[in-house]
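ARCHIVE RECORD
Type: protein–small molecule complex
Small molecule: pyridoxal-5'-phosphate
Source of inputs: curated submission
Record status: active
Notes field left blank by submitter.
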Amino acid sequence: MTTPDSSPVFDVAGGRGCDVPDYILNMAPYRAGKPIEELAREFELDPAGIVKLASNENPLGLPQSARHAVADALASLARYPDSNGYDLKAALSAHYGVAANWLTLGNGSNDLLELASLALLVPGASCVYSQYAFAVYRLATQARGARHLVVPARDYGHDLDAMATAVDDDTRLMYIANPNNPTGTFHPAARMEAFLDRVYRDSGERVTVVVDEAYNEYLDPELRFDSTQWVRRFPNLIVTRTFSKAYGLAGLRVGYALAQPRLTDLLNRVRQPFNVNSLAQAGATAALQDSDFLEQSYEVTRAGKKMLCGAFDRLGLTYLPSYGNFVLVRVGDAPAVNLALLRQGVIVRPVGGDGLPEWLRVSVGLVSENTRFIEALAHAVGR
Ligand SMILES: Cc1ncc(COP(=O)(O)O)c(C=O)c1O
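STRUCTURE (tokenized, with ligand):
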């Protein structure tokens, strides 16, 4: 098979004879939220009038502090980035009170989730994660040819006891999103600590637990906790966080992992040398110090969730109380409702691929965006 310019390409269907492992051929690529420009093209809409609440992005945009830092860093783009991310790690070290050799930077926290699977999983090993968990855990497990131990959810959230019980002799890795995406469910610190304690007592360092805290900064103050205490206590733990959500830097792609030096060293061995670009490092270093922006992100999200949930109540729609910057709502015929929303220029996320065919996930937007969505939804569900 050839492309129009005659360069050879793989025929994936025919790849079965080409030593491509079945577990790769069986992978379904991650489906990201529909871009605004794509919807504008499909439905001949004005992109300026489209509201996108599909990818749990920060509706405030990026912080001014990060914008200035990125502008300053443009001058050095002819050079490779700092492979060790010295400035960002120094800022994170000061922020968390851990040494730099407890930190790994990633091209988004997605990168770190992948690196954990790359370092720890092999064909035949198993990975434990929950039904309705973040889709990347499935992909990261599949890409290594490892076995999936998918534990049925309890009330749409992680059943931690069942997950600990599911660990078998081949288990090397567990993923837990807290809060979880797409369900928005959350386990308080005491429950998480009891779980981590049990897994470490049962399996020691043989089983690594990745606690994915991409939405941590949206927790109400009384639920916040210092997960670095767990990292100090459990040598089998990796905690991942991101600058994509509350810090407003999704497009820059930067996240980080906290873990003791043994696991940090493993992640570093398998990462690309320049996995976090210079603009991302500069923007994230500035954003980390910007507590005003973080507070604003929290407030806009808290008020926005209240607004969305109030509307769902009025429309008689079931939803899951969410600890993230999004809400999962049950609309019945989700593909039809989604199409009706798209026609009105509103993009949300269908989650049928996550086993939730009657639900849509809606990211919290600005008041004007939430209002547009609520009006469009009322129209779409005929209320
Ligand atoms: C639970 C969870 N973890 C990790 C990520 C990855 O985010 P990023 O790679 O932008 O840090 C996301 C993104 O939506 C998420 O929902």
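CURATOR ANNOTATION: The chain has a mean pLDDT of 94.
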